[in-house]
Every structure is written in C-alpha cells, then in structure tokens.
Amino acid sequence: MLEKSAAVLAVILFSLSPLSAQKTQIGLNLGLSRAFFTGPPDLIFTQNKLMAYRAGIWIDHAFGEHFSIQSGLEYWDKGFDGSLRSFGMLTVITPVRLRIQYLELPLILKYHLGRYLFFGAGSYLAQKLGGLLTLFRDESARLEPREIGYILGIGAAIHLFRQDHTLELQWRKGWTPVFSINDDEFFFSTLSVLYGLRF
C-alpha cells in the first residue's frame, strides 16, 4: 500500500510541472550521515555511533519561479552496533550487528527562497541490495526488502569556478521498519550533510 502511495505521489507531482519548464539540471551528490536506530525504548540497551555513507545522481526539474522537483538514484550504506534487552524470568542482553545497503529513489518538492537558499520535503523508496543482521546468530532473513520514509531538508546553492555547488542538511526517517522481532519494530533515521555538483 505504501509503495503504491509513493508511486501515485510521484505521478501527481510530475503532472503539476508544465512542459515549458524553466530549467532542468542534472547533478551528483555525496554525503556523510549520522544513523539513528530506533525501536521500543525499553528494548534498546546500548548503541554505538555509526555513520552512514551515500552517493548518487539526481535530476532537478524547475517549474514556476520558486519551485522544483528533484529525484534521482542513490546508494546508501547504513549500520548499527549495540545490544537489545529483553525481560522475562531473566533479563537477556542480545548483541546486535546490522549492516545494510540500499538503492534509494527520492522524490523531493523544493522551494527556492531567492537564488541561493532552498527548502525541501518529500519521500523516498529504498530497495535492499544486501545486508547482515546478527543477533547471537545470523538473522538476516528478518531484514525487510524495502523501506519507505519521508525527507526534510534545507540547503544553499553556490556558484564557484563557473560551476554550481550545493550544500544541504537533510533529515530522513523511515516509516517502515528495517526488521521486526515478534511485534517489536526497529527503524532507521539519518541526519546527513550533503555536497552536490550541478551540471
């Protein structure tokens, strides 16, 4: 259902842009992210600060004076090291090691305030390329094949050495879990610093 909703959103947003669009740009981006792993608070016992890495290509399609739609294709590498705590007759501490790689398709509606500053909001669909989940033993079969979430961002464009560059701070939060244990669901969020190059 969520995947169909994302596809419908993409069709609607692109249908809003006229054929006589002002400008279409293609670019590359690289980013470094802080990955946040969340779930039931009483279950997450410890977690280490791990970084997420991303790189991708994007296309930005401008319409009107202030708006554009950006999409593209990105590679993400996310991870988590820590432990979970479960309660019963005895309290059990379970070490967790998670590494997962995604191919992500974002769709962002951007508002440009003047020439240099922009704000963005949208959603993304991520397809798992590979991953490893260890909970005492290999539990990689628990990893969900896809992730859907939302995007919020703020950035600035800079014209330097005859080239357009962008710097952006972006927050992404998953709506769907990375994996589940019984009825408990675990999610990823990321706070990223992005550098982009426009052609």
Can you tell me about this structure?
- This protein is mostly beta strands and 199 residues long.
- Strands 1-3-4-5-6-8-9-11 form an 8-stranded antiparallel barrel.
- The relative contact order is 0.20.
- The longest helix has 15 residues.
- Helices cover 8% and strands 71% of the residues.
- About 8% of the residues have low confidence.
Keywords, separated by commas or semicolons:
1 helix; Porin; 199 residues; mainly beta
Shape type:
elongated
| Separation of the first and last Cα atoms | 36 Å
Name the CATH architecture.
Beta Barrel
Which strand order do you get reading across the main beta sheet? 1-3-4-5-6-8-9-11
Cα Rg: 19 Å
CATH-defined fold name? Porin
Work out the count of structural domains.
1
Helix content: under 10%
Number of helices: 1
Proportion of residues in β-strands: over 45%
> The biggest beta sheet, please?
8 strands, antiparallel, barrel
SSE pattern: HEEEEEEEEEEE
Structural class: mainly beta
Mean pLDDT: 87
The overall strand count is 11
CATH top level label: Mainly Beta
Uncertain residue segments: 7-21
